[in-house]
């Protein structure tokens, strides 16, 4: 599956952004989807994931109660609604796909990656 992330930008602290990740192919519903982020000089870290089976979700503690992951299988798209943004949320955000896998916080468990979209939160 090929992934295309979009929706990043510059926002003030406390603001909101919604990221989208559009997938190609007709088997999107069989993919567990994840969002990861990578700040300069840091490792890529898990942000949120949504399973292919049942749509269960998981979040990093740092974004819980502020971010919401969702998917629309009819549109082959996964979303990340980001609210109450903080300067420490600044990073390049990547979407990733894992065929019929569990939601994982480990990047290497994902088969396909989007190109990334920059999110910058100013204080």
- What's the shape? globular
Structural class comes to mainly beta
Percentage of residues in strands: over 45%
Terminal Cα span? 37 Å
The low-pLDDT segments are: none
Order of helices and strands: EEEEEEEEEEE
How confident overall, as mean pLDDT? 96
Helix content: under 10%
- Main beta-sheet strand count, sense and barrel state: 7 strands, mixed
Count of distinct strands: 11
With helices defined by DSSP (H or I, 4 residues minimum), what is the helix count?
Answer: 0
Rg computed from alpha carbons, rounded to a whole number of angstroms: 13 Å
Give an overview of the whole structure.
The protein is an all-beta fold. Helix content is 0%, strand content 50%. The chain contains no helices and eleven strands. The chain has strands at 3-6, 9-12, 17-23, 31-38, 45-50, 57-59, 67-72, 77-82, 91-99, 112-113, 117-122. The strands form two sheets. Strands 2, 4, 5, 6, 9, 10 and 11 form a seven-stranded mixed β-sheet that branches. The mean pLDDT is 96.
């Amino acid at each position: 599956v090929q992934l295309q992330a979009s929706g990043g930008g510059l926002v003030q602290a406390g603001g909101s952004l919604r990221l989208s990740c559009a997938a190609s192919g007709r088997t999107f519903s069989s993919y567990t989807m994840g969002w990861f982020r990578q700040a300069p000089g840091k490792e890529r870290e898990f942000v949120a994931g949504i399973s292919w089976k049942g749509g269960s979700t998981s979040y990093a503690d740092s974004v819980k109660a502020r971010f919401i992951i969702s998917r629309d299988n009819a549109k082959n798209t996964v979303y990340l609604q980001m609210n109450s943004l903080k300067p420490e949320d600044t990073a390049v955000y990547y979407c990733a796909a894992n065929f019929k896998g569990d939601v994982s916080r480990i990047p290497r468990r994902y088969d396909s990656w989007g190109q990334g979209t920059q999110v910058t939160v100013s204080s």
